[in-house]
Give the backbone structure.
Amino acid sequence: MLTQAPKGTRDITPEQSHLWHYMEDAMRAACAAAGYREARTPVFEHTELFLRGIGDTTDVVQKEMYTFTDKGGRSVTLKPEGTAGVVRMLVEHKLFAEALPAKMYYVSCPNFRYEKPQNGRLREFHQFGVEAFGAPQATVDAEQIALAWDLLTGLGLTGLSLHVNSIGCPVCRPVFHERLQAFLVERLDKLCDTCQERFTRNPMRILDCKSPDCQAQLVGAPRVLDCLCPDCRAHMQTLQETLTRIAIPFELDPGIVRGLDYYTKTVFEIIAQMPGGSLTVCGGGRYDGLTEALGGPALPGVGFGMGMERVLMLLDAQGKAPPLPPQVQVYVCTQGDAARDAALPLAQNLRRAGVAADCDHMGRSLKAQFKHADKCGARLVLVLGEAELLAETVTLRDMRTRQETQVPLPALTEAVLACLAQGGLTPVN
C-alpha cells in the first residue's frame, strides 16, 4: 500500500524526533571532545567501492546490497556501511596530506541492507561512526573504544559488555587459516552450504556464521590469538594495557571476527543484554590495508559503527529515554478578529528574539486555544482581546502558577524573556 512505509523501514515521527536530537547531540559532543570532525558522504557509491572494500565473500556483498544500474549504465549501490565511503572521500580529496591522524565521524548516516526485518535489524538503518587514519598505535584503538563506551554509559545505559579480539594481519592470518582448515576438514560436511564455500576462500568467515549447527562444529577450534605474529601480539598487548589504564572494562573474546573483510588486528563489539537476548550495539576495529586497497596510500585506519536505532531500543527498554520536550514556550491566545490579526506579528517578534512561540491558526474559541496551548507545553500564554488592544497591553499568564500580569505591548518581548529566564511568574502569597 502507498500509505505504508516499505518493509524494513521506519518513520521518525515528530513525537520521536527529540530522541534522535538527544542522541545526536551526545554523539557530536563526544566526538568534539576527542578531536573528531564531521564528514558526510553520498547515500550511494559506485558498486566497485564495496566489492573491493568490504570483500566479495561477505554476506553484505553476496546477499544484502541494494545495487542497481543508473540511467547512465553505471552500477551503483546504496551504501551498506559507512567506512568505505569515508575512505573513498579521504583518497579523492587527499585528506591524508593534512596533519595526521585524520579523525572524522558521521552521525545519522543512512545505510541499506536487504535483510529479514527483525528486532534491532532494519533494511534502512542509521549509524554513528568514527574513523581515524594515519595512526598505527593501539592507543587510537583504545581512544575510540573509550569514546563509544563512555558515550553509551553516559546516556545512562547499563548491562553493557565490551568484547575485544585480534584477527591478525596478512602476515599471521594465513597461519590461522591453515590451522582452522585442518580442524574443520573432517567436519566440513556438517557445515552449512555458505560455510562450505567459505572453507577455501575465507575460512575465518565461518567463525561469524550464526547457524547453531556451524557453531557446534567450532567448539575447540583454534584461536586467532594463538597465531599472532610478534607485531600483532604486541599491538594487542598495548591495547589491553591502555584500556586498563583508562578504566574501560573488557573481556577477550576469540569469537569476535566482525562481518567485513577489511578488518586487521583489533576487532571489538559492545554488547547489551535485552529481555530477548544479547544485542550488538557497536562494533569496529582496525583496517590498516583498506586505503591502499581503494587506491590510496598505505595508511593505517581504525573505526567503529554504532546502530542508532539500537541505541534508541536500549534507551527505551531501560527507561532512559528523555521525555518529550515542550513544543513551544509561549502561545498567543486571541479573542476577536482584530486581536487575531495581531497574533502572528506578536508571535513572530518573539521568534526573532529567540523564543519558541505559536498562535492559533484554526479559528478556535478562547477556551480551546488555552487547551491547545497546554497541550503544546507552553509555559506562558499571551491573552489578547479587544480590551487589551484598546489599552495597548497584553495579559501575560503563567500556565503553571496561574499567575497573570498586564504588560504594555512595547515591553512585551523584554517581559517574556525575563519571565522565561526566571522560570515564570512568581506566585502571589
